[in-house]
Amino acid sequence: MTFAETIRQARRDRGLTIEQLGAKISRDKTWMSKLENDRLPYPPTVDTITALANILALDRNKLLALSGRQVENDMKKLTKIFKKVYKTYPNLTTKLIEKIDKDPDFASHIFAQLKDS
C-alpha cells in the first residue's frame, strides 16, 4: 500500500471524513484530497506525518518510510550524532568516514553487526 492509500484507509477505518482529518492537522479539504490521491507536489513534513500517525494510530516510522521522509529524518539524526562524535573524536570520525567511503564492505559489516544486536 502507498502512503496515500494508507492514510485514506486509516481515515475511513476510524470513521473520519476528509474534512475532519484535515481540521485535526490544520489542512483544508483540497490539500487532504491531494494527499490521499497522491497528487501533492512534495511529501508532507515530518511534523504533519507524525500528527497523522498519532491521530490515525499508525506507525510513524512506516509512514515516514512510505512518504520518502524517513531518509530526510535519518539524515538529520545522523548529522546531529556525527557532530557530537566529531567534537570528541575528530581524527577518528574523519577516518571512519573515509573508511566507509573507500570500503563499502566495511559499512555492510557494521550494519550486519547492528542488525544482529
Account of the 3D structure:
The protein is mostly helical and 117 residues long. It has two domains: 3-67, 434 Repressor (Amino-terminal Domain) (Orthogonal Bundle), CATH 1.10.260.40; 70-116, no CATH class. 78% of the residues lie in helices and 0% in strands. The chain contains eight helices and no strands. It has helices spanning 3-13, 18-24, 29-36, 46-56, 60-67, 69-88, 90-102, 104-116. The protein is elongated, with a radius of gyration of 19 Å.
> What string, H for helix and E for strand, traces the elements in order?
HHHHHHHH
The total of helices stands at 8
Q: Structural class, from helix and strand content? A: mainly alpha
Number of strands: 0
CATH architecture assignment name of the largest domain: Orthogonal Bundle
Percentage of residues assigned to helices: over 70%
Q: What's the CATH H-level superfamily name of the largest domain?
A: lambda repressor-like DNA-binding domains
What is the CATH first-level class name of the largest domain? Mainly Alpha
Based on CA atoms alone, the radius of gyration comes out at 19 Å
How is the CATH topology of the largest domain named?
A: 434 Repressor (Amino-terminal Domain)
Q: What general form does the structure show?
A: elongated
Strand content: under 5%
